[in-house]
Amino acid sequence: MRLLPIFTVVLLLVSPWLMASGAWQSWPVVGEATLKWGPWVIYDSQLRTPSGQYNASMANSVALVIKYQRDIDKDDLLDATDDQWQKLGVPAAKRQQWRIVLDNIWPNVRKGDRLIFVVHPDGGTFYRDNTVIGEVRDREMANAFLDIWLSPRTRYPDLRKRLIGQV
Questions:
Q1: CA gap 96, 164 in Å, rounded
Q2: Hey, is 153 helix, strand or coil?
Q3: What architecture (CATH level 2) is domain 3-163?
Q4: Are the C-beta atoms of 88 and 151 separated by less than 8 Å?
């Protein structure tokens, strides 16, 4: 009889970890998009959810998969992210704080590498291919990171439409 309450507590404690620990790999793709800069392909991306559908209210169950088609230095990734956050109106102090978090997580990427961000209720988990490389323990930061691609105010509205399955 006492095992059931203990099991329930354990399940509640580990369920966010289980959700972020690889379940995203079996989630259906909502949409796919390619980012190009002039004639160069920078990356291919996918958005995945448990249902294969997306709406803004399901931000607790989203995986953004980015497969790089060229080598990119970590500092260039950090600069590009900061630039996008600035365009979205994120205050400089937050951008600086969040950049430090990402600097401690992100590697340099090589052509063919995948960086994956899986959102969970307390933030998100970054993967390099199928290996966890770091945690974001700030839900506001996790949302701001996804907003780079999913906000209606994104710099890349066509990419957003493809990712969320509107094209």
A1: 29
A2: coil
A3: 3-Layer(bba) Sandwich (3.50)
A4: yes
Amino acid (1-letter code) at residue 129: D
Cα–Cα nearest to 124, from 135, 116, 113, 114: 135
Pairing of the two strands 63-68 and 40-48:
antiparallel
Q: Which two tokens stand for residue 122?
A: 């307390």
- pLDDT 10s digits, 131-157: 999 999 999 999 999 999 999 999 999
Residue 158 CA, distance from chain mean position? 18
Buried b / exposed e across 6-16, counting CB within 10 Å, b at 16+? Answer: eeeeeeeeeee
Strand partners, 33: 45
Angle at 122 between CA 116 and CA 125, to 5 degrees: 20
CB atoms within 10 A of CB 40: 9
Show Cβ contacts of residue 27 under 8 Å, excluding neighbours closer than 6 positions: 48, 49, 50, 52, 61, 63
pLDDT in tens, 37-69: 899 999 999 999 999 999 887 667 899 999 999
Nearest C-alpha neighbor of 70 from the set 105, 32, 108 = 108
Instruction: Measure the CA–CA gap between 163 and 33, rounded to whole angstroms.
Output: 6
